[in-house]
């Protein structure tokens, strides 16, 4: 995985004070931050899949998966790399990873309906050697470790919207992510709630910024912005 390091550099903007780096009142809370919302949503998608074979929504669209896959191939991430899909949802990303030759795949989600849906989708694709587990990433108790790559496509966003104690949830996420990754392991995050600059601050301690992936841009009021941010980090001691 040495090639993944070529463009990396440190954040260079860490502060000794959590309060100095960012506000914990970033967003209003939302039902999208609750387990109940996602369990209901995935239960409906599970029933639809069983009825007509529709896997449901691909969070952020197919291109959100393709841009990460393109980077992984360019970075020469080996096919036997241990890869964790954090908040796997319907398992669509696991399917695409497997189709691209990656064979050491694990998906986790705290929604039982999501886990059942992902397993059904993978089975329908003939992918029986992919691990999917019902696991709450914020309460995994050191269960997750030794991964070469961790991928997040919307899960950190949802945690940031939790109605109860999302401040602690965000800190726990970063801590557990550090524990889950090997030294020099790669973290790929796609977010619609956080800007590049905010993500650099959130993942400053224990991570090194590698690269920003190109995402669609828009112009409003004379300013140019992006609808999502997609960043690559490397785990460092």
From TrEMBL:
<dbReference type="GO" id="GO:0005634">
    <property type="term" value="C:nucleus"/>
</dbReference>
<dbReference type="InterPro" id="IPR029063">
    <property type="entry name" value="SAM-dependent_MTases_sf"/>
</dbReference>
<dbReference type="InterPro" id="IPR026635">
    <property type="entry name" value="Efm4/METTL10"/>
</dbReference>
<keyword id="KW-0539">Nucleus</keyword>
<feature type="region of interest" description="Disordered">
    <location>
        <begin position="1"/>
        <end position="27"/>
    </location>
</feature>
<feature type="domain" description="Methyltransferase">
    <location>
        <begin position="80"/>
        <end position="213"/>
    </location>
</feature>
<keyword id="KW-0949">S-adenosyl-L-methionine</keyword>
<dbReference type="Pfam" id="PF13847">
    <property type="entry name" value="Methyltransf_31"/>
</dbReference>
<dbReference type="GO" id="GO:0005737">
    <property type="term" value="C:cytoplasm"/>
</dbReference>
<dbReference type="InterPro" id="IPR025714">
    <property type="entry name" value="Methyltranfer_dom"/>
</dbReference>
<protein>
    <recommendedName>
        <fullName>EEF1A lysine methyltransferase 2</fullName>
        <ecNumber>2.1.1.-</ecNumber>
    </recommendedName>
</protein>
<keyword id="KW-0808">Transferase</keyword>
<dbReference type="GO" id="GO:0032259">
    <property type="term" value="P:methylation"/>
</dbReference>
<keyword id="KW-0963">Cytoplasm</keyword>
<comment type="similarity">
    <text>Belongs to the class I-like SAM-binding methyltransferase superfamily. EFM4 family.</text>
</comment>
<comment type="function">
    <text>Protein-lysine methyltransferase that selectively catalyzes the trimethylation of EEF1A at 'Lys-318'.</text>
</comment>
<dbReference type="GO" id="GO:0016279">
    <property type="term" value="F:protein-lysine N-methyltransferase activity"/>
</dbReference>
<keyword id="KW-0489">Methyltransferase</keyword>
């Amino acid at each position: 995985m040495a090639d993944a390091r070529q463009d990396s550099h440190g954040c260079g903007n860490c502060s000794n004070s959590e309060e100095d780096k960012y506000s914990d009142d970033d967003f209003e809370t939302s039902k999208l931050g609750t387990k109940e919302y996602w369990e209901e949503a995935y239960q409906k998608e599970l029933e639809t899949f069983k009825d007509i074979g529709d896997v449901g929504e691909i969070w952020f669209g197919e291109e959100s998966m393709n841009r990460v896959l393109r980077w992984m191939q360019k970075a020469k991430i080996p096919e036997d790399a241990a890869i964790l899909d954090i908040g796997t949802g319907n398992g669509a990303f696991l399917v695409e990873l497997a189709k691209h030759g990656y064979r050491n795949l694990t998906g986790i989600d705290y929604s039982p309906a999501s886990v059942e849906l992902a397993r059904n989708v993978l089975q329908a694709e003939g992918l029986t050697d992919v691990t999917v587990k019902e696991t709450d990433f914020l309460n995994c108790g050191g269960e997750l470790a030794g991964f070469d790559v961790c991928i997040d496509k919307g899960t950190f966003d949802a945690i940031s919207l939790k109605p109860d104690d999302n401040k602690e949830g965000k800190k726990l996420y970063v801590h557990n992510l550090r524990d889950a990754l090997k030294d020099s392991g790669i973290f790929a995050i796609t977010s619609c709630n956080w800007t590049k600059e905010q993500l650099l601050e959130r993942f400053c301690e224990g991570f090194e910024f590698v690269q920003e992936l190109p995402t669609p841009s828009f112009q409003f009021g004379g300013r140019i912005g992006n609808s999502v941010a997609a960043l690559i980090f490397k785990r460092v001691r």
